[in-house]
Amino acid sequence: MPNPASRPDHGDWAVPYQPADFTDVDPAAVTWRGKTPSAALVDAVYRIVEGEGPIHRDVLHLHLGEVLYQPKLTAAKKRLVDVAAELLTDEGRIIGTDDFLDLPGQPCAQARWPLPGLTRRPVEQVAPAERRRALLGFVEDRPRELGAEQAVAEAAAFFGWSPRTGRAPARLMADLYRLRDTDVITGWPSKLEPAASGGSDA
Protein backbone atom coordinates (compact mmCIF):
# COMPACT_ATOMS: atom_id res chain seq x y z
CA MET A 1 0.00 0.00 0.00
CA PRO A 2 1.43 3.43 -0.90
CA ASN A 3 2.56 5.63 1.94
CA PRO A 4 0.02 8.51 2.15
CA ALA A 5 2.77 10.86 3.36
CA SER A 6 5.06 10.16 0.40
CA ARG A 7 5.38 12.56 -2.49
CA PRO A 8 3.17 11.54 -5.42
CA ASP A 9 6.05 11.88 -7.89
CA HIS A 10 8.34 9.60 -5.85
CA GLY A 11 8.16 6.22 -4.18
CA ASP A 12 7.53 5.52 -0.52
CA TRP A 13 11.15 6.41 0.23
CA ALA A 14 10.32 10.15 0.08
CA VAL A 15 8.53 11.71 3.05
CA PRO A 16 8.40 15.18 4.61
CA TYR A 17 10.60 15.97 7.59
CA GLN A 18 8.23 16.09 10.53
CA PRO A 19 9.81 17.56 13.69
CA ALA A 20 8.83 15.63 16.79
CA ASP A 21 5.89 17.27 18.50
CA PHE A 22 4.63 15.83 21.77
CA THR A 23 2.42 17.62 24.24
CA ASP A 24 2.67 15.30 27.24
CA VAL A 25 6.11 16.56 28.32
CA ASP A 26 6.02 19.26 30.96
CA PRO A 27 8.86 21.72 30.26
CA ALA A 28 8.81 22.66 33.94
CA ALA A 29 9.82 19.10 34.83
CA VAL A 30 13.08 19.50 32.90
CA THR A 31 15.75 21.01 35.09
CA TRP A 32 18.87 22.59 33.61
CA ARG A 33 20.97 22.87 36.77
CA GLY A 34 24.05 20.84 37.59
CA LYS A 35 26.06 18.52 35.38
CA THR A 36 23.67 15.55 35.34
CA PRO A 37 20.58 15.72 33.13
CA SER A 38 17.21 15.14 34.76
CA ALA A 39 15.20 12.02 33.90
CA ALA A 40 12.69 14.24 32.10
CA LEU A 41 15.44 15.66 29.88
CA VAL A 42 16.82 12.20 29.11
CA ASP A 43 13.31 11.06 28.15
CA ALA A 44 12.79 14.09 25.93
CA VAL A 45 16.09 13.47 24.13
CA TYR A 46 15.15 9.85 23.56
CA ARG A 47 11.77 10.78 22.12
CA ILE A 48 13.28 13.30 19.72
CA VAL A 49 15.78 10.69 18.48
CA GLU A 50 13.00 8.11 18.27
CA GLY A 51 10.87 10.42 16.14
CA GLU A 52 13.54 12.08 14.00
CA GLY A 53 16.51 9.73 13.78
CA PRO A 54 18.94 9.79 12.15
CA ILE A 55 19.27 13.29 13.58
CA HIS A 56 22.30 15.55 13.78
CA ARG A 57 23.21 16.86 17.22
CA ASP A 58 22.70 20.46 16.13
CA VAL A 59 19.18 19.64 14.90
CA LEU A 60 18.53 17.80 18.17
CA HIS A 61 19.51 20.91 20.13
CA LEU A 62 17.24 23.06 17.97
CA HIS A 63 14.17 20.84 18.02
CA LEU A 64 14.50 19.91 21.67
CA GLY A 65 14.69 23.59 22.55
CA GLU A 66 11.52 24.24 20.58
CA VAL A 67 9.66 21.40 22.32
CA LEU A 68 10.77 22.63 25.75
CA TYR A 69 10.17 26.32 24.99
CA GLN A 70 13.89 27.02 25.04
CA PRO A 71 14.37 28.48 21.54
CA LYS A 72 18.09 29.19 22.03
CA LEU A 73 19.88 26.68 24.21
CA THR A 74 22.97 28.03 25.94
CA ALA A 75 26.25 26.17 25.68
CA ALA A 76 25.69 24.77 29.17
CA LYS A 77 22.26 23.47 28.26
CA LYS A 78 23.58 21.91 25.06
CA ARG A 79 26.18 20.10 27.14
CA LEU A 80 23.41 18.66 29.31
CA VAL A 81 21.58 17.47 26.21
CA ASP A 82 24.77 15.83 24.95
CA VAL A 83 25.30 14.15 28.33
CA ALA A 84 21.73 12.84 28.15
CA ALA A 85 22.47 11.42 24.70
CA GLU A 86 25.66 9.80 26.02
CA LEU A 87 23.69 8.17 28.85
CA LEU A 88 21.17 6.80 26.36
CA THR A 89 24.03 5.52 24.19
CA ASP A 90 25.67 3.81 27.15
CA GLU A 91 22.34 2.13 27.94
CA GLY A 92 22.06 0.91 24.34
CA ARG A 93 18.81 2.78 23.76
CA ILE A 94 20.29 4.94 20.99
CA ILE A 95 23.42 4.80 18.88
CA GLY A 96 25.76 7.56 17.79
CA THR A 97 27.71 7.69 14.53
CA ASP A 98 29.85 10.78 14.11
CA ASP A 99 27.42 13.60 14.98
CA PHE A 100 24.25 11.64 14.21
CA LEU A 101 21.95 9.83 16.64
CA ASP A 102 19.43 7.10 15.87
CA LEU A 103 17.75 4.06 17.34
CA PRO A 104 19.77 0.82 17.14
CA GLY A 105 18.93 -1.65 14.40
CA GLN A 106 16.90 0.87 12.42
CA PRO A 107 17.92 1.02 8.75
CA CYS A 108 17.41 4.30 6.94
CA ALA A 109 14.45 3.43 4.71
CA GLN A 110 13.32 6.96 3.88
CA ALA A 111 14.68 10.36 2.92
CA ARG A 112 12.97 13.50 4.14
CA TRP A 113 12.34 16.66 2.16
CA PRO A 114 12.03 19.98 4.04
CA LEU A 115 8.66 21.49 4.80
CA PRO A 116 8.68 25.13 3.62
CA GLY A 117 10.43 27.42 6.06
CA LEU A 118 10.79 24.84 8.80
CA THR A 119 13.28 22.04 8.47
CA ARG A 120 15.74 22.63 5.62
CA ARG A 121 18.99 21.12 6.86
CA PRO A 122 22.43 21.88 5.42
CA VAL A 123 24.14 18.92 3.83
CA GLU A 124 26.33 18.36 6.90
CA GLN A 125 23.19 17.82 8.99
CA VAL A 126 21.71 15.09 6.79
CA ALA A 127 23.08 11.65 7.59
CA PRO A 128 25.03 9.98 4.78
CA ALA A 129 22.60 7.04 4.92
CA GLU A 130 19.67 9.40 4.30
CA ARG A 131 21.43 11.17 1.44
CA ARG A 132 22.20 7.80 -0.14
CA ARG A 133 18.60 6.69 0.32
CA ALA A 134 17.46 9.71 -1.67
CA LEU A 135 19.96 9.03 -4.45
CA LEU A 136 18.93 5.40 -4.62
CA GLY A 137 15.28 6.44 -4.56
CA PHE A 138 15.69 8.58 -7.66
CA VAL A 139 17.48 5.75 -9.43
CA GLU A 140 14.71 3.33 -8.42
CA ASP A 141 12.03 5.72 -9.64
CA ARG A 142 13.70 6.25 -13.03
CA PRO A 143 15.98 3.29 -13.79
CA ARG A 144 18.40 3.86 -16.69
CA GLU A 145 17.07 7.40 -17.17
CA LEU A 146 19.52 9.28 -14.95
CA GLY A 147 23.24 9.83 -15.16
CA ALA A 148 25.39 10.51 -12.13
CA GLU A 149 25.25 14.30 -12.42
CA GLN A 150 21.49 14.25 -12.96
CA ALA A 151 20.97 12.06 -9.90
CA VAL A 152 23.06 14.43 -7.79
CA ALA A 153 21.10 17.44 -9.06
CA GLU A 154 17.77 15.73 -8.32
CA ALA A 155 18.86 14.82 -4.79
CA ALA A 156 20.18 18.32 -4.11
CA ALA A 157 16.88 19.86 -5.16
CA PHE A 158 14.99 17.31 -3.06
CA PHE A 159 16.78 18.45 0.11
CA GLY A 160 16.51 22.13 -0.83
CA TRP A 161 20.15 22.67 -1.81
CA SER A 162 21.74 24.19 -4.87
CA PRO A 163 22.53 21.47 -7.42
CA ARG A 164 25.68 23.24 -8.62
CA THR A 165 27.17 25.35 -5.83
CA GLY A 166 28.13 24.89 -2.21
CA ARG A 167 29.22 21.70 -0.51
CA ALA A 168 26.18 19.58 -1.32
CA PRO A 169 27.01 18.43 -4.88
CA ALA A 170 30.44 17.10 -3.91
CA ARG A 171 29.06 15.25 -0.90
CA LEU A 172 26.23 13.76 -2.91
CA MET A 173 28.60 12.65 -5.65
CA ALA A 174 30.76 10.95 -3.01
CA ASP A 175 27.60 9.23 -1.73
CA LEU A 176 26.79 8.09 -5.26
CA TYR A 177 30.29 6.66 -5.66
CA ARG A 178 29.69 4.80 -2.39
CA LEU A 179 26.50 3.27 -3.78
CA ARG A 180 28.39 2.25 -6.91
CA ASP A 181 31.36 0.81 -5.06
CA THR A 182 29.13 -1.24 -2.74
CA ASP A 183 27.20 -2.68 -5.71
CA VAL A 184 23.94 -0.97 -4.82
CA ILE A 185 23.68 0.70 -8.23
CA THR A 186 24.99 -0.18 -11.69
CA GLY A 187 25.02 1.48 -15.10
CA TRP A 188 27.72 3.98 -14.17
CA PRO A 189 27.89 6.77 -15.12
CA SER A 190 25.12 7.53 -17.62
CA LYS A 191 22.34 4.94 -17.14
CA LEU A 192 22.06 4.30 -13.44
CA GLU A 193 19.81 1.55 -12.15
CA PRO A 194 19.50 -0.47 -8.94
CA ALA A 195 21.63 -3.58 -8.86
CA ALA A 196 19.68 -6.80 -9.20
CA SER A 197 20.79 -7.72 -5.68
CA GLY A 198 22.14 -4.59 -4.04
CA GLY A 199 25.25 -4.81 -1.91
CA SER A 200 25.67 -3.44 1.56
CA ASP A 201 25.66 0.29 2.16
CA ALA A 202 27.34 -0.06 5.52
**Main pleated-sheet profile:** 3 strands, antiparallel
Multimeric organization: single chain
Helix percent band: 40-55%
Q: How many strand segments?
A: 7
Shape: elongated
Low-confidence stretches: none
User: What is the string of SSEs from the N terminus onward?
Assistant: EHEHHEEEHHHEE
Strand content: 5-15%
Integer average pLDDT: 91
Features:
single chain, 202 residues, mainly alpha, 6 helices
Layout: helices, strands, pairs:
Elements lengths: L13 E3 L22 H14 L2 E2 H11 L7 H16 L4 E3 L2 E3 L8 E3 L14 H14 L6 H12 L8 H14 L3 E2 L6 E2 L8
Parallel strand pairs: 1-5
Antiparallel strand pairs: 2-4, 3-4, 6-7
Helix pairs in contact: 1-3, 4-5, 4-6, 5-6
